[in-house]
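Input structure tokens:
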């Protein structure tokens, strides 16, 4: 057992999903009227239904613009859907984060595709990671500082990074700070939006191994958005394929690779096969 990630959420035997998305649709804003009539903004998600079991990793793949980040942002409560609903642990999830309880906000964390937009440039790295510790836990200052250092080590950053500002570290390092900050909340559901894409292969492998360890120890569920099918195959239990806002296929990883059913999934795998590489050996 790892002291850093105690098993506060052992994998329950409950059959119900941790997250159930039902008939979710989304569109952005309203169009200004042109020639007297305002056309409805197009839907970027259409009737998407998905579920995620406790302890499961579901990879969400699909071409750029297919709606992956939009789906994650709706689950995180950062933007509303236009139809459908989301259940978390069996209960209806309020649409927006500010309508959710502190405990719900702790349990659902997101790591954004673009860490530059999510880290406050005036806050040092240590302050950023400390914030969820202050919000969600009753810890002494010394305990918080110890956990910040543990979390930095967990994402393979040296502890003196706690004193740096986001502008003083690289993009891949900022992504790892954002991950450490999300993990500080000890979530039950982590929404990961392309979090390893900017990392080199060895750091990528260690971040995935870290998530694998936390999953095994705490029963964390992951919605793992990636465009890298090799990563999805190696890391996920199931893969969901989005195409132009619609879910075209969801299947266990090996089933999807062995017999993709939807033509878009077939095309995606055909494009991927020539570049298939063996997954990097995970090491911490
Ligand atoms: N703030 C916004 N305002 C208007 N349209 C948006 C906004 N954000 C995204 N969109 C549109 O919604 C659609 C889905 O975008 P989304 O960011 O969810 O795609 P994605 O699958 O995450 O793509 P990528 O792989 O490039 O990150 C796209 O057509 C995009 O142009
Ligand atoms: Mg995206």
């Amino acid at each position: 057992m790892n002291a850093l990630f105690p098993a506060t959420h052992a994998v329950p035997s409950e059959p119900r999903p941790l997250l159930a998305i039902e008939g979710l649709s989304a569109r952005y804003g309203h169009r200004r009227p042109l020639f007297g009539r305002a056309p409805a903004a197009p839907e970027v998600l259409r009737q998407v239904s998905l579920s995620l079991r406790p302890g499961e990793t579901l990879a969400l793949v699909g071409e750029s613009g297919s709606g992956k980040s939009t789906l994650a942002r709706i689950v995180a409560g950062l933007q509303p859907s236009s139809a459908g609903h989301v259940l978390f642990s069996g209960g209806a999830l309020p649409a927006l984060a500010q309508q959710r309880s502190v405990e719900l906000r702790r349990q659902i964390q997101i790591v954004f595709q673009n860490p530059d937009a999510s880290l406050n440039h005036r806050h040092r790295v240590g302050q950023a990671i400390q914030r969820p510790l202050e919000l969600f836990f009753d810890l002494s200052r010394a305990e918080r500082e110890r956990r910040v250092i543990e979390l930095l080590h967990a994402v393979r950053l040296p502890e003196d990074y706690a004193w740096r500002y986001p502008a003083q570290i690289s993009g891949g390092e900022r992504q790892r700070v954002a991950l450490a900050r999300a993990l500080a909340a000890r979530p039950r559901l982590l929404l990961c939006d392309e979090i390893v894409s900017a990392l080199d292969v060895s750091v990528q492998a260690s971040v995935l191994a870290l998530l694998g360890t936390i999953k095994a120890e705490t029963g964390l569920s992951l919605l793992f958005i990636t465009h890298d099918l090799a990563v999805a195959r190696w890391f996920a239990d199931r893969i969901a394929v989005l195409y132009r806002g619609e879910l075209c296929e969801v299947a266990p990883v090996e089933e999807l690779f062995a017999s993709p059913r939807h033509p878009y999934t077939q095309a995606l795998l055909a494009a991927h096969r020539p570049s298939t590489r063996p997954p990097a050996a995970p090491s911490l």
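Residues 7-12 have pLDDT under 50 and may be disordered. Residues 68-69, 113, 193 surround magnesium ion (ligand 2) (CB under 6 Å).
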